[in-house]
Amino acid sequence: MSKYSSHAVTVSSGCDIVKYLKDFTTTQNFQAAFVVQCAGEVSRATLRMAESWNAYQPVKEVSDLTKIESFVGTISGGNGHLHASLSHKDGEVIGGHVFGPVVASGNVEIVVGECKNLSFTRTHDEQTGFPELLVLDHNAESNLQSESQDPTSQGEVDTTVDDLTIKTYALRLVPGEEICNGLNIFVSKHKLKEPFIMTCVGSITKAVICLGQDEKVNIIINF
């Protein structure tokens, strides 16, 4: 568990959004930064499509003016992990893994979130073949140190504070895990009362989507 802080930044026209975010979070010494919200237009972007794990292909270059419909993911930890969805003037949308510069066209407004007392790093995962997210909780480390120094301390240390501060959690779901079920288990385990998702990034193999208010109309998507 970690307390949360947010920071609003503006990326000027012609600047690479990805580089700006890396430079900003490095300068601020953020160890667990992520994108909360992003709005604006871009003139150039490089996106990697799904099913391109081994050869890092196919990669698509977007070289015309597009609007940012979503820009999410982690900034800290190695090269980070960002996904983007961009819409063309005809409404067509393209999305994928950010695989190169994303150049702002006009000012791009971004809210950057930070999980205080957490660090994002990456470690090689044998199952996926990629460097996957590893979350280090410095609160837990300090609690373990305090517990080892206190001979009367037993069991888990309760660090919950009843205040109005937003608290954040970072987790990684493993391949094959059903996302909603994994989140429900996590929420129940930590007894969260009013949880919500701030950012989510990754790939899926299957999804069931309900259209409108008719629960009988579902779309099953297999990838």
Automatic annotation (TrEMBL):
InterPro entries named among the record's database cross-references: PPC_dom
Pfam families attached to this UniProt entry: PCC (PF03479)
Name of the featured protein: Uncharacterized protein
Organism this protein belongs to: Paramuricea clavata
